[in-house]
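Collaborator request, handled under Task 6.
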Amino acid sequence: MKQRHYFMETTDGIRLFVRKWDAVNRADARIILIHGFSEHSGRYKPWAERFAAENISVLTVDLRGHGQSQGIRGHTPGFKRLLLDLDQLMEEHPAPANTPTFIYGQSLGGGIVINYGLTRRDGYEGIIATSPWLRLSTEPKAFALLLSRGLKIIAPRAVRNSKLNINYLSHDPEVIKRYEHDPLTHRQITPHLFFGARKAGLYALHNAHKLNKPLLLMHGTGDKITSLKASEQFVQKAQKHHKDVRFIRWPELYHELHQEKQKDRVFQTILQWLKEKTKNSQTHEHLQNTRSH
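Structure tokens returned to the collaborator:
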């Protein structure tokens, strides 16, 4: 299968590293994949290849301050800037005709795509969010939060150690080992990124009723990095307003569902949901075309 990579320049002059995997045959759908905090798109190569083998093309990017993209490690000028970067990625990479696009985010990426789904209607047909950062599993103590808020005012770009415990990414020791030896991963975060993500998570929890597209949200019950309870609260509020949300709890799984030993089942769950929503999208488009004639 064909993979390409190159840089695109954002409107504020940051070069972002982009990867594309073409579907083996004509694409039935396209995924735009947004990775999590402290990692990069290259960690999703085997996952992207699985989708490509199922005739789903994948477009992904290293977030600013991550991977091979430019920017201070673990920093963004604001959470809205991450949404604007996704806007630009989609605008510069329009999907082929009759190929529905789905936005898929993990962890920080999950928070990004959910917020995208609350504030944008066009250019995509659905959302997949795994272990989204709506709240952290353990929130920082009040003193640490106060200190960080002070830093946000005094030194918003100051890099700090996030103290991310990578042992809770997956039960698979090989995943942890690869992460530790990956030169493109880091555990750095600035106050701007931390408080931007935190505020965006709270916004999502208070505005679940604004969800514009179907959502598949999945979270491991053993996740010690992002909050399962926050995902449950988001789903309950969205469903209360009759939004098309499917929620799956994965018993005992850690943070990176796609890196767990049950990843085959995780993949098949996503694939079946995509096929269902792609079929719905194509049926809707056919009806629209019939009516226009």
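The cover message to the collaborator said: "Residues 263-292 form the longest helix (30 residues). The chain has eight helices and ten strands. Please let us know whether this matches your experimental observations."
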